[in-house]
Amino acid sequence: MDLDRAKQTYIIEARELLDSMEEALLTVEGMSEPEEPINAMFRAVHTIKGSAGLFGLDGIVHFAHTVESVLDRVRGSGLQLTGELIGLMLECHDHLAQLISDLQSALPETAEVTLAGEGILARLAPYMNGGLAKAAKAQPIEAAPLRREAGAEAPGRDCWHVSIRFSRDVLRNGMDPLSFVRYLATMGEIVHLASIFGNLPEREAFDPEECRLGLEIELDTKAERAAIEDVFEFVRDGSEIRLIPPNAKVEDYIQLIKELPEEDRFLGEILVAGGCLTLHELEEALKVQRQEAYGDGSVQGRMLGTIVIQENAVPPTVVVAALEKQKKYQERQAQELRVVKVSAEKLDRLVDLVGELVIAGASAHAKAGQAGTGSASLLEATVTVNKLVEEIRDNALSLRMVQIGETFNKFRRIVRDVSLELGKAIELEIHGADTELDKTIVEKLSDPLMHIVRNSIDHGIEPVDVRRARGKPESGTLALHASHESGSIIIEVSDDGGGLNKNRILAKAIERGLVKTGANLSDQEIINLIFEPGFSTADAVSNLSGRGVGMDVVRRNIDELRGTIEVETEEGLGTTLRMRLPLTLAIIDGFRVEVAGASYVVPLDVVIECLDLAPFLESEHNHLVNLRGEVLPFLRLREVFQIPGEVPARERVVVIQHGDLRAGIVVDRLMGEFQTVIKPLGKLFKGAKGIGGSTILGTGEVALILDVAQMVQLATERHGPPRNSQASLTESA
Amino acid sequence: MFQIVRSTHEGEPSLRLEGDLTIYEVTEAKGTLSAALDQHPSLQLNLSGLEELDTAGVQLLAWLKQEARRRGRTLTLFAHSPAVVEVFDLLQVASLFGDAILIPPAAPSLIAPSAS
Amino acid sequence: MAELIKFSKRQTQILSAAPVERREQYLAFTLGGETLAMDIRAIREVIQFGSITDVPLMPTFIRGVINLRGSVVPVIDLMVRFGRSATAVANRTCIVILELTQGEDTAEMGVMVDNVSEVLSIGESEVEPTPAFGSDIRSEFIAGVAKVEDRFVILLDVNKVLSVDELAALIG
């Protein structure tokens, strides 16, 4: 594992930690026992800081340090987590997210970002005991400021300290450090100078033309920093030049010691000799380091990382080992799901392969069946194989399943922020967060859901005063609801806001030319106009609603997922948007049927039962039969698809359920259950009626998958609306 | 221009360096001097003949000192010429080398110091 | 003055003979007795007409779908597309599999033809603009007409013929 990979892991983990921090912040308000989220927030920042130290990410360490201190006070010293502090912590979260993001893009910290960070830290200051804890710039150790001993002399402190490590090529480039020293001497008095020949290798390895000279100089001069820097103008590239102005703090010298490659004590003694530090101050600083180093185990790991990294001699194994130690520390503390991270591409490839395996298994089984008698064992063997393939398929598909709660939770933050911005009070309720669905569907749902949620917040839920006037609770409720239902997943977004105004919708539709004036539309038809392209009732498309893309795009997105969306609304009471989606896009459990020799597939999850049609035909009336006291409308696939040929003597009925409607599909033969990969038919067949996709059978033949919703709709158009299962036959006439 | 002249100094073998010891000479000088260090457990370098010394030269001398220690030899620098003294002063390396440096009187003379 | 003119004329003649002509390759095939050709760049392969699965409630120019090594590919009957009666399946009936990129999407599609004959190399200069009469194929489907060894070959613009948007609209 090299350093870059370790850093990537850090970024991924930091993001997860930030997510858990945000979630904790959003759920903690009003909790009677807030220990768990508070601990979660603290742990998140603590870990981010610690690991950042390992990689020398001083900007992150610096910022996280104060945040961690405040959270520590909340955790231990009884600092109250007020709404205001939560808001400030959310800002801290955002800033850390920005720093991590910049880290990933390999952007250096801009002045703007630093300034923003300092601003936030300044506002955190009142929450710290007696002001901001002194986190020295870019220093992983919180060293308490050392005090100067009374009477101690440190004359070097009145001088500029000039520290140079010349680049190796300085001599070859025709320059001589001696001339710089001579020149510096003309600018003032060189009170002290120490030459350091660093790291001269042995024997052949030593190249005498390479410059390995470093200088630590105390220069007593009235010259400005710029003037001193100018002296080194020609060697600035490749050389390390550090200047410490006169009357600097002890910490500044200590920091210099840390930054320079030579041993701390060695450098310390030079500075003491130069009069920058007293011996006592040096001892104190070194002692503090040692204490930190051997105190908390995890901190030692961090120390190791920073020193090693500053010397630019990081053995990756060391850093990784330390990072691992940090992680173990965290795992001991937190009770987390044991999770394995898998690349999304690998997962997709696996599911593809499993799909192919399913088809090949079916093919083998079919061929074994054709082989004739005497191959019963072969047939049995293929059955065994297919059972195992089915299990693998189920497992592989379940790998792709993620809980929709993850997506729902993202909305907490948005609801909070947006409602604050608009001055509305909105509560977010989430139900069915552990409902699982295919990750691809979740990804593609994210945008449409976002749009719907924003609509509710912007236009659905009324401002507080309006709600009060209407006698509603001041706080509006936005509910996200997910559940499984007969083979599909249902997602609802409902609000108790003002509902959709039918008159306004109709007026707008007429204005946009979508509807002719005087057209007679039912209420539901009017409401469904919102899905028409080019429609938007927002008078002012607030920037929160985003691009004003409209519900037509939302519907298109849902269509692409082979789902449906419908709207229920009541003026003054609220609106509910209901989406119905398939559980998975990839593989289907199907029931094969035959009509006129061609195969069709009915999604197994809608199949209730299969029957012979004959007994029912006697009492059939207008394509309705009596199924154990219930009215069952049916349609012949042959008729619906206008397949030529004679209707066979014996027909079969597949009873299906769509929503709360039942219907029967009449076919020639029932071929049985099987599982297979869905092959989409492509853009060309977008308008195809009754067909929702295709699949390849074991025989190589292409079979069409029925779109049950459309089938039911087609049946409705032909035979009148199917009664729901409650109505009795006598009412049907 | 650079030369190394063999002689002895108080019974011990010594090498007298003459001319310039700068970046132009150091590579060649290193070879010769390093070999000399191998040949003599105790080597003395007479610096009276050095007219010019730059950082590379000082660095080489410092390296030789370090090599002597590494190889278990002794190396002594003596009779530092004015040029050498000036540079040593500038870089404050006297203590680094640890050799006794005679501040020459106004008129330079090549008086060999007593063995330290 | 006159000599000057003559001189320049000769110069222009020399200049115009210089450039090398671009030649494109086309696959020629027969459809309802006519010889047509399409740009070879869009062609992936040619297969024999075999079993095909009908897709119900589709316009007749959609013959159905086939299984092409695990992909489900639609097959268009060009005769019907050009407003004639359906292609009669015979021994040499083939499906030419095309890969068309329209906008952001790339799709595979098959077209039924009576048979395929040869690959023609046709230069730009040999292509004449579509005549106003002579073929009942819609003029926007035709990229041009080429004269090859005494025959006229109609060059199809496959992107227009098989425009997914147009076809999908026809389907509803």
Explain what the structure shows:
Chain A is of the alpha+beta class. Chain A is built from 23 helices and 21 strands. Chain A is 45% helix and 19% strand. In chain A, a hairpin with a 2-residue loop joins strand 15 and strand 16 (630-636). The model of chain A is unreliable at 130-152, 293-316, 538-548 and 721-733 (pLDDT under 50). By secondary structure, chain B is an alpha/beta fold. Chain B contains four helices and four strands. A four-stranded mixed sheet of chain B has the order 1-2-3-4, with helices on both faces. Chain B is globular. With 172 residues, chain C is α+β, with helices and mostly antiparallel strands. Helices cover 19% and strands 45% of the residues of chain C. Chain C has four helices and eleven strands, in the order αβββββαββββββαα. Chain C has helices spanning 2-17, 78-81, 158-161, 164-171, and strands at 23-31, 34-39, 43-48, 62-68, 71-77, 94-102, 105-113, 115-123, 127-128, 142-148, 151-156. Chain C is globular and about 45 Å long. Chain C starts with a helix and ends with a helix. Mean pLDDT of chain C is 79; it is low at 1-18. At the A-C interface, strand 20 and strand 21 of A face strand 4, strand 5, strand 7 and helix 4 of C.
